[in-house]
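Q: What would this chain look like folded?
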Amino acid sequence: MLRWEGTATAPELLTLLATVKDGAREGGPEQTMAFLRANQAASRGEVAEAERAYRELVTRRDLPERARAIEALVGLLASKKDYAGCAELAVAEAPRIAPGTSRATLLATGLSWCA
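A: My prediction, written as structure tokens:
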């Protein structure tokens, strides 16, 4: 199961669906599985577990899903009204992720809604 509250372009959606497909196969890449587990925790409403998992993913600079993990984390922080944490994440991470939907969502949420 995957719950995605962010937005995505068609290519980004295809990548997200491929991530889910790769993770569904037994023996899928551990990093992909960790990203999917974080999303599943969020889907189940296990906010503390999802936050812990997303924060762990954000520390992995080589993670292909890192930008999406940051996007998910900023949304989670905003939803639990941790506005300071949400804004701090946006300021710290926006320069580190490539232009695209995840960065736009990070900036819009972190610097508009949370700031």
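Helices lie at 10-24, 30-43, 47-58, 66-79, 83-93, 101-113.
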